[in-house]
Amino acid sequence: MNSELILALDALEKTKNIKKEIMFEALEAALITAYKKNFGPGYNCFADVNRETGDMRVYCTKTVVEEVNDDCTEITLEEAQKVNKRYQIGDLVDFEASPAKFGRIAAQTAKQIVVQKIREAERGNMYDEYQSKENDIMLGKVEKLDRKGVMVDLGTAEALLTESEQIPGEIYTPGKRIKVYVYEVKKTPKNVNLMVSRTHPGLVKKLFEQEVPEIADGTVVIKSIAREAGSRSKIAVFAENPNIDPVGSCVGQKGTRVASIVEELNDEKIDVVQYSDDIAEYISAALNPAKVLSVSVDEANKSALVTVPEFQLSLAIGKEGQNARLAARLTGWKIDIKSDGGALQ
Prior knowledge:
This protein is an alpha+beta fold. It folds into 4 domains: 2-125, 2-Layer Sandwich (N Utilization Substance Protein A, Chain:P, domain 4); 136-197, CATH 2.40.50.140; 200-275, K homology (KH) domain (GMP Synthetase, Chain A, domain 3), CATH 3.30.300; 287-345, 2-Layer Sandwich (GMP Synthetase, Chain A, domain 3). 35% of the residues lie in helices and 30% in strands. The chain has helices spanning 2-15, 20-39, 77-83, 104-131, 201-211, 213-216, 246-251, 256-264, 279-286, 313-317, 322-331, and strands spanning 45-49, 56-65, 74-76, 92-97, 136-146, 149-153, 158-162, 177-187, 192-197, 220-228, 232-239, 269-274, 294-298, 303-308, 334-339. A hairpin with a 6-residue loop joins strand 1 and strand 2 (56-65). The chain starts with a helix and ends in a 6-residue tail after the last strand.
C-alpha cells in the first residue's frame, strides 16, 4: 500500500508537475484533519509521512501533569510512566495513533483534502505558467461561441473573449486560429482566469514587436498608440539613430510588415507616424494622411490650432472626426483644425 503511494506521487509529479513534497505535506495535513474529525478537535497532534517508504504515522502530544483537567492534552504521571519510566511532570508524551483505525468519514476527509491540495497545486502551476504571458500575445484556437463570447483554446488553458474585447465585424469560427492579447492573469479560489482582448492597443504593440526586428531589439521605439479597434489605429515610432527610418522600418519593403499586421487585425487601417519632441512636428505627423500647413501651440492649455489646405479639411478631420480624434489621443493634445480659407472644425 505504502509503496503504491510513492509510485502514485511519482506519477503525479511527472504528469501534473506537482512536487512530491507538496503532496507529502498535503497528506500530513489530511491525516491531522481526519484524526481530529474522528476523535475530537481538542487533540494536539501531528503527522509524519516517510518520504522514502510512504509509511504514515499520526501522533498526539500530551503534557504530564499531577491532575488531569483535559483528557485531550494532559496525562497523569502514572499513565505516562507506563509508556516510559523516564517521564516526569511537565514532560511531553507523544502517542502514536494508527491511521488504519480511522473510520470511513475520516478517510473521506483525508481524500478530500488531498484532492483539494492537488487542485491548488495545479492552479499554482498554471498561474506561474501564464503570469509571464501577462501583457503579451498568445496564439489560440477558437473552440466555441456562445452568449458570453468566444471560447479560445490556448493549449493548457482556455480564455473567454468577451463581446467588448472582440474586433467589431470580425467573424469567429470554430477551429480558426487567432492571436489574443493577455491583459490580466487572475488566480481565483477555483481557477486561473486569463483576461484576453483583440481590441487592446497592446495587441497592436506586440504585433509590431513580432513583425519588426528593429522594435524587438530596441532600435526603434513605440512612443504611443491610439486605436479604434476594427477601424483605424495610429502608432508613433522613434529612433535615436538618425540614420534609421523608424516609419520605414515598421512599414517594411512595399508595406509587407504593416500589411501582415493589418491582415491579423481584420483589415484595420494603421497609420505609422514619426514621433518628435517638437510638438508641432508631432501633431503634423499625427494628422497623416492630411498635409498640415501650420501648427500654433498653446503650451499652457496643451492645445493646438492646426491649419490645413481647404481641400484637405475633411481628410484631416476624418470620417466622423476619427482622424482628428486619434491624433489627439496619440499626442495627448487637444487639436482644433481649420482650413487656410478660415473654416474652423
